[in-house]
Specification:
The longest helix has 51 residues. It is built from five helices and no strands. It has one domain. By secondary structure, it is mostly helical. The chain is elongated. Helix 1 runs antiparallel to helix 2.
Length: 140
């Protein structure tokens, strides 16, 4: 899903129609804020929202509910000037790009640890088989 959102954001950078940009940003910011993969806890949303040029900074009480944050972002996007919309698009794109790279590195690390675990289990089993096999000299 992140790939589709990234494609939309890349198209929005080159779009001159500000109303189309606004309506696409409503959905994109809704998707980003609702995503439990990107933000496991509600408080994790704060750095992302604070990186945006908002008229009024987001207070902590708004972060208790994701729909409240989305409503606030829709209001900000709706009232934003065209140059601020471009900043929203680039910030969302940068954020998704960073989170994608972090996900890839975590996946690689977890695969490496699984491979290490499997190889150590195989060595342990091989050692046991060698130790207690019928052809072993230690059993004689």
């Amino acid at each position: 899903m992140n790939k589709l959102v990234m494609q939309d954001l890349n198209r929005l950078i080159h779009t001159e129609n500000s109303s189309e940009t606004r309506y696409k940003l409503f959905g994109i910011f809704g998707y980003i804020i609702q995503s439990r993969d990107l933000f496991p806890k509600n408080i994790d949303i704060k750095p992302f929202v604070n990186s945006l040029p908002l008229e009024i900074p987001v207070k902590d009480y708004l972060l208790s509910s994701r729909p409240q944050v989305i409503a606030r972002m829709i209001k900000e996007i709706n009232n934003a000037a065209d140059d601020i919309l471009y900043i929203y698009v680039t910030e969302a794109r940068n954020f998704l790009d960073e989170s994608t790279h972090e996900d890839i590195s975590e996946t690689v690390k977890s695969k490496q640890s699984v491979n290490r675990k499997k190889s150590s289990e195989t060595n342990y089993i091989d050692n046991l088989l060698n130790k207690y096999s019928r052809n072993s000299k230690s059993n004689e």
